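User: Could you write out the 3D structure of this protein bound to zinc ion? I've included everything you need below.
Assistant: Certainly. Input first, then the structure.
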Amino acid sequence: MSLGCQSKPRAIIAWHHPDFAAPLGHDAIMPMRKFADVAQAVAGLGTVLRSPEPIPDPDLLRVHSRDYVNAVRTGTPRELAQSQKFAWSPQLYRSVCLTNGAVLAAGTEALDCGVAAAVASGFHHAHELRGEGFCTFNGLVVAAEVLRAKGRIRTAAVLDLDLHYGNGTASLVVSRPWMRALSIYGNDYADNQAFRDVSVMRHSDGWNHRSAALPAGSGRSELLSTLQAQLPWLVADGIPDLLLYQAGADPYREDPYSPLSLEIEDLRERDRWVFRFAWEHRIPIAWVLAGGYTRDLSKVVQIHVNTFKAAKEIYGI
Ligand SMILES: [Zn+2]
């Protein structure tokens, strides 16, 4: 890993923008306020917050179809513009472009200094031709594509530890042999529907996308043993130039979607494992917040803040 930083990073750099939170309507389940709450909390821990630039259309078009990008920008056709299940508004396009810009900025920073964060979603359910599951443009794959086009990376890996299976990311890496994606999940996801547990359906893996299901009731030992068994696959064919980590808060046992038995501290230990893995293999790592729907928003925020604490521990920041 060639670091632009002269020595180890002195602070975590994280990208955040108040306009991440587009007005979504009263029935939206996504607690958009969490992004501002997490940003405020981590600033108190010494994290340096920066504002991203919105990602430009030509970069979105590296991953998504012109019809879909146009639909999200204009609201027409409405069915496609709302395929991720957010009510369309003129602010939505700016919000998702800023979110994708934050992932790209975090990835760029990670290449320079080893570790960085986007206080934003990764949008792992978004597909080439449409959105899904509150995910509009797949910021993980968009960021990897842009960095590859700029010559900053040749390969990239996505580690998805959100509760839900990262079906959009899997669909997008199929045509990108320079990427690989691993999703360890406890709840299936397809066609805008979250299922209660992994017994409902199984996903077919490909040579560069792989999944591991955590059965209902899984706790710390199952999670950590699965990480131990699966993480080496990410480096089996060589060390990727960048690791993008989808650090979901929704595996938590109180989350309304979660059939798992994971405590908040178990998720912090998960994060330590991930950062230790990246550190030991000298892989630049950028992470995003991903899902988290527990009614008590302070617990969602705590889980996301713990990811920052885990990174600081492992990187000695
Ligand atoms: Zn999720």
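The radius of gyration is 18 Å.
User: Perfect, thank you.
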